[in-house]
Amino acid sequence: MWIVVFSSLIILIDQITKFLVRNNLLESQQINIIANLLSLRFIKNEGAAFGILEGQRHLFIIVTFFFFALLYYLYKKELSDNLSSKLALIFLIGGSIGNLIDRISYHYVIDFIAVANFPVFNVADIFIFFGIILLLFNLLFREN
Q: TM segments (predicted)?
């Protein structure tokens, strides 16, 4: 139950931030938060992370559903029932669904967090990144 609640909270935060960006910034408009380090910039990302495989929307939607099946398998069969494995699942589900909503609704993912010398990303991407780190940690250091 908590997995659904917290995943939904991540989705809500992600979608609210994207709504605010979509309705308050022009595409490619940049607002500096910390000079030369952090800014907001509305980018329509039609690819995966860092724009890889641009324009393959249907592929990403299909891959996302396979990813959910893999997460379900790992959670049921491979991961121990500890807090970090639950957090990994929450982060990955919330982040993936957040970006999936964009792909289905807009045919692109809304990215807007720009850090110096790094591709633009969004809140969902942050949770996916940390979810993968936690998942790898759990898989590599689990008790057999």
A: 58-75, 87-106, 118-141
Task: Pull the structure tokens for residue 95.
Answer: 């982040």
Active site residue 111: yes
Active-site position among 14, 81, 102, 111: 111
Cα–Cα dist 134/110, whole Å = 25
14 assigned to active site: no
Tokens coding 27 = 């595409």
34, β-bridge pairs: 38
Catalytic residue among 14, 81, 102, 125: 125
Q: How far is it, in rounded angstroms, from Cα 20 to Cα 14?
A: 10
Torsion of CA 30, 32, 36, 39, to 10 degrees: -70
The larger pLDDT score, comparing residue 141 to residue 60, is at 141
Q: Which of 40, 34, 47 is nearest to 18 (CA)?
A: 40
Distance (Å, whole) CA 89 – CA 73: 11
- Please give the average per-residue pLDDT across 113-120, as a whole number: 94
Its pTM stands at: 0.85
